[in-house]
Amino acid sequence: MTNKRVELNAFGALPSPITCPFDGGWVLYLPLTDQMLVLNPSAKLVWEMLVRECEHDEIASALAEHFGISFERASSDVGQILASLKDIKSKSDAAAGYPISLSLSTEVASACVASQLDFEYCGSFRFGESLINVLSTVPEVNESFFSRFRHRAVGNGEDADVLEVSRRDTTYCLIFRGSLLAEVTTVNAMMWCVIELLLNLEHSNTALLAYCHSAAVSKGNHRLLMPGRSGVGKSTLTAFLVVNGFAYVGDDVIAIGEDDGALLPLPTCLSIKSGSWPILEQFYPGLGQLPTLNRYGRSMRHVEPQHNYEVLPATSAPSAIVFPAYKEGNQTHLSSLPPLQTMIHLLGAHAALATPATEDKLRKLIRFVEQTPAYELTYSELPSALKAIEDLLAAQPQQ
Q: What is the pTM of this model?
């Protein structure tokens, strides 16, 4: 885990955007904001000229000449592209205004928070070989985040490493073992920094390539990665798959191993939201007695995993990627996705390169997407979704 403040590269310059060709388009990675975008050739040309501070008409003229279209059509296209890219560029430029630091001493890091803030003790937990005590002044951490790791809680945190999450003025700080690992401007960015740290601790012997908001299950020799933003129905589907013969791998964030594409989960409990309680209580008899927690305006209960999923990630890469989408009243439909659409769907699930992000990692992620079959699963009934997934995995080669 490296310092998440804006870092200088080996030549003393700010990190530059990374672009890689991909399936007739381009993938653009912005190190300063930790964003990935998929661009078509027109958008890539517009982006390059926007970075050079070119004006609208100059960009439109270049686009018209490059693609052999009228200036009027190019001007209209440029307007639409600029509307989305300018906001992205402004965020990247703003990130460049962060304080720049190559290193921060233990003394400086500790002085940032320890002597001035009133921390709440959030518990002691084991991740991989590391035992940590969590201290926080951020309500989003205090109230519910670490409750998802209650199966990793330990009663005695004596001699444990200390993880501190705090807010100071307009920034959020993450300090671990006395060193400042991250200083960001939003609580969401801070939570992703915490997640990446925990992933690195949990899988300390494995290099991480990327991670995304996803569930994952396993059956026989097959692994299934199910990315998606919150609310699409992946947790409910995961819970149903688990009571129908699948092993639980993860339900919140899944990382991908850099060397072999193995699935590496953030070791959370299964989160079941209130809308799914009536459906799933018959399969999880104790669900109704579990504590109710609120996160991002949603009520949920955490079910501890019943499978020894800790040993599963070392086996293999996923047999397939499935993007689940619950749509009431729709027939179950599984449709194949080309690599470009797969990447776009992954970005919608908050996919990010692991720190430090490099062009080599971006190329490896593209290769992972190109080599892994991917599908969109639309469903309204869990039994039919289960059958579609079982049929899909049965058709995949044994790993």
A: 0.83
